[in-house]
Amino acid sequence: MRIQLAATGEGFKAPSAKDFNLPPFIDGVAFATKPILLAFLSVVLISVFFIAASRKAAIVPSRLQFAGESVYSFVREGLAKDIIGHEFLRFVPYLFTLFTFILVNNWFGIIPLLQFPTMSRVSFPYVLAAITFFVFHYVGIRKQGPVKYIKEIMFMPGVPKAVYILLTPIELATFFIVRPLTLSLRLFANMFAGHLLLLVFFLGGEYLLMGAMGLKIVSPFAFLVGIALTFFEFMIQILQAYIFTLLTALYIAGALADEH
Amino acid sequence: MEGSLNLVGYGLAAIGPAIATGMIFAAYINGVARQPEARSVLQPIAFLGFAVAEALALFGLVLAFVL
Fold it and tell me: Transmembrane: is it a keyword of this entry (chain B) (predicted)?
């Protein structure tokens, strides 16, 4: 529903969802856009970093090796081992890839000159959530067999029979609709809203700077808040990469467990 | 000034998840303050609860743009 209030603030175009539709940088090639380029760049950066960090592995680690290993052990010990349990080792590559890929792509949102979080285009989180969706269902079906797996989802043991009328639809919706949807939308919405927030403060500050003398004075405050929010975003970006990986690990652990 | 009433509605809808998130982390901080060694056990639980509560805010955000 659109509403029209008395016209104030003419001239300033508030940033909106349209600012995320970047034109392709090669004319006529629809998929050659900045987010795609950033996704490929992130793969290159991550590969180079971890190859360099692990190439000259020594017992007394260099600074680079220490940095690479602490990221790896954070995912391996903190996420995979603690949550999945004794079968964690075969999921570490997936979780580690997921964490670093999301983390670097989120950081692109505040790295100068790049400044566009790849994950604020919803198709990237969709694909990542779809992979997680297939992984945890595949793991569950392989572990328990298709019939038992679906039965465990639909009829949670230890519940009075009458409750199944309510519980079964909710459980089915949770496993097949809500989980992949929220997993992708959480990442997307956080990156989208965060980028929009920074746009509001920096574009707003710029607009104030162009305005009358009174407005010029308040403009630095807009920039200051924008810079503070950039640091806040830095934290949110790490947190979102962590949460995506954490939830993936939890879903895998749930599919592996004999009883939910 | 032009705008959409949906966003006002979304602001109202976000109150619930906001309170929920606050309560979850308050409980988490309480727990860690009382028993610091329980931190690694509580952390995934806290973030799982946070993720579930936040999901409601996300549905609101999506609907604010879609409707």
Answer: yes
What number of helices (H) and strands (E) belong to chain B?
3, 1
Of the candidates B5, B61, B65, which has its C-beta nearest A1's C-beta?
A: B5
Between chain A and chain B, how many beta carbons pairs sit less than 8 Å apart?
54
Q: Retrieve residue A91's tokens.
A: 């999921």
**CATH number for the domain that contains residue B54:** 1.20.20.10
* pLDDT > 90 in chain A, percent: 45
Residue A214, classified by CB atoms within 10 Å of its CB into exposed (0-12), middle (13-18) or buried (19+), is exposed
State the residue range of the domain holding B50.
5-66
Q: Which residues in chain B have Cβ-Cβ distances shorter than 8 Å to A254?
A: none
| ipTM rounded to 2 decimals | 0.74
- pLDDT 10s digits, B22-61: 999 999 999 999 999 998 889 888 988 888 888 888 888 8
